[in-house]
Amino acid sequence: MTSHETRSAALVDAFTQEPLTGNAAGVVPDASGLTDSQMQAVARELAVSETAFLQLGETAGVDADRRIRYFTPTMEVDLCGHATIASHALLHRRGDIEPGTHTLATNVGTISVEVTAEGTVWMTQNPPTVYERVVSYDRLAEALGCSETAFEGVGESLPVAYASTGLGFLIVPVSFLDGLGSMEPDFDAVERLAADHDAAGVYVFSFDSLTAEATLHGRCFVPGAGVPEDPVTGTASGACAAYLDHFGAFRGGDDASLADGDDASPADVDDVSPTDVGDVSPAGVDDVLPTDGNDVSAVTSETDSAGDRERAAGGGAGEPSNAAGTPAEMVFEQGHFLDRPGTVRVRVGAGENGAPAVGGDAVETFSGSIHIPEDDGEEIIEA
To answer: Over the stretch 19-44, which tens digit does the pLDDT of each residue have?
Structure first.
């Protein structure tokens, strides 16, 4: 039997406090010396949506506390919200980092991550890029496996749009939770749809949520990165929050009720021009974050039918934080249709130039050692 090097590895469920829920991330706390092909092999073996590989900054030769890289089972991606949350929650629980701000070098620049004394992790994303995209209901219905009527009502007030706060997504609103939950996507068609709009994936949401505390319920499809459906997503949640703020989804505050008999859509949209923050032209998945290494500052910090309660579109999200009426903090629920329920807390305008922050808890579900294969010296083949 061939002897292989081993490294410590863990599975950590992000955006949850309950094991085996939320979004599972692989974490290799010390990936120093591993090659691209070795990291890809480990990510393929752990077989979760993303695995994070970390090194101390001085070991990696970067001006940051740590260097991180993210791999899906099939490819490397430049940014992953839930794996960032999971990694820092694990490091904090193991005593490797203290509460406070920690700098993290990614493929596309250095970000800051805040860990609270309780272990909650906040990650501030990039200044938003948001602009409307024209997509027919029939194409959306064909790709997402639903009726065209799912987009009616809310679609009259909120458009389909591209939004990025670090990774681009096509944001698609639907009126009701049953339409969202019954979707059976054609993943090849979803991949083509996302690619046609320079997006990594498609994030579909409804204000018709499961819990009274939640602002909305979302589902995220990223088949182009080898992740048919991502259970609970940090990068997509940040993008959706920027979308809601940009299009004034909560304008009118308490007048935008989702009580029985009320329209399921928020206030009318009268601004569909590109945001004045960030690049207004579409960007490819590989270049949606700045590459100049500038820091992105961080911030600190059961179920009822929606028809059975009266609440504003912001749910339990608190007082509006800006002229658009966007709540200071929102709660996005996701993963329930995969039996992996979780919640993402989102704050718009937490960083410079309107950058949102996403936050959540995480729990370690498995730890051990993984055998590292010998480096075959070959480059990773991408489909």
So the answer is: 999 999 999 999 999 999 999 999 99
Active-site entry in 5, 50, 148, 382? 50
CA distance 335 to 9: 24
CATH code of domain 129-292+304-352? 3.10.310.10
Q: Which amino acid is at 165?
A: T
The DSSP bridge partners found for residue 70 are: 52, 77
Q: What are the E-state strand segments in 140-273? A: 161-164, 168-173, 201-206, 216-222, 227-230
Q: Torsion angle, CA of 296/300/301/306, rounded to 10 degrees?
A: 0
The contacts of residue 314 (CB under 8 Å, 6+ apart) are 215, 250, 320, 326, 327, 330
DSSP string, 62-127: -SSSEEEEEE-SS-EES--HHHHHHHHHHHHHTTSS-SEEEEEEETTEEEEEEE-TT--EEEE-PP
Cα–Cα distance, 360 to 315 (Å, whole number): 18
| Separation of alpha carbons 39 and 326, rounded Å | 40
Distance CA 234, CA 358 (A): 6
> Do 5-120+362-372 and 129-292+304-352 fold alike per CATH?
yes
Q: At 127, which amino acid appears? A: P
Place of tokens 């991949």: 191
Could you confirm whether domain 5-120+362-372 is CATH 1.10.3210.10? Answer: no
Q: Which of 10, 43, 53 is nearest to 380 (CA)?
A: 43
pLDDT in tens, 82-116: 999 999 999 999 999 999 999 999 887 888 899 99
Domain extent listing, the chain: 5-120+362-372, 129-292+304-352
- Whether 156 is catalytic is no
Look up residue 159 and give its amino acid: P
Alpha-carbon distances, residue 282 vs 167, 200, 205, 276 (angstroms): 11, 12, 22, 14
> What Cα–Cα distance (Å) separates residue 371 from each residue in 31, 49, 52, 267?
12, 20, 16, 54
pLDDT > 60? residue 303: no
